[in-house]
Amino acid sequence: MKYLLIAIIKLYWKLTPPHKRRCCCFKVSCSNYVFQQAQKHGFIAGWKALTYRFRTCRNGSRLVWLEKEKVLLMVLANGDQLNENEISENLVRKYKILF
Question: Is the pTM of this model over 0.70?
Fold first, then answer.
């Protein structure tokens, strides 16, 4: 099963050009993260990573600047929070340009 999950991700990478993929809010893209987890820890870890990312990397996440602490956070759709070092560099850069 591990190899099937890895093969599906590789097929996704091969068939979907980078410019057609959704922008991930995580620094390590969802497909890369799931691939790494499956490769290192097996199918169950890869599947858990996939379901977690699918639930959290959806519309409803938002960037929040905490003025007092001078910290940028991302609040995910399920309420989890990402620190700036876990957020996609593209999103951080866009946010800092706007504000």
Answer: yes
Tokens 């929070």: give the residue. 81
What does the domain layout of the chain look like in residue ranges?
2-98
Q: Give the residue among 85, 78, 86 at the shortest CA–CA distance from 26.
A: 86
Here the tokens at position 64 are 């929040």
Q: What is the CB-side half-sphere exposure of residue 70 using CA atoms within 13 A? A: 0
Q: Is 82 exposed, middle or buried (0-12, 13-18, 19+ CB in 10 A)?
A: buried
Q: Would strands 62-66 and 71-75 be described as parallel, antiparallel, or unpaired?
A: antiparallel
pLDDT at 92 over 80: yes
Task: Please give the span between the terminal C-alpha atoms of the chain, in angstroms, as a whole number.
Answer: 45
Q: What gap in Å lies between CA 96 and CA 47, rounded to an integer? A: 34
Q: Which residue matches tokens 């977690």?
A: 52
CB 26 within 8 A of CB 87: yes
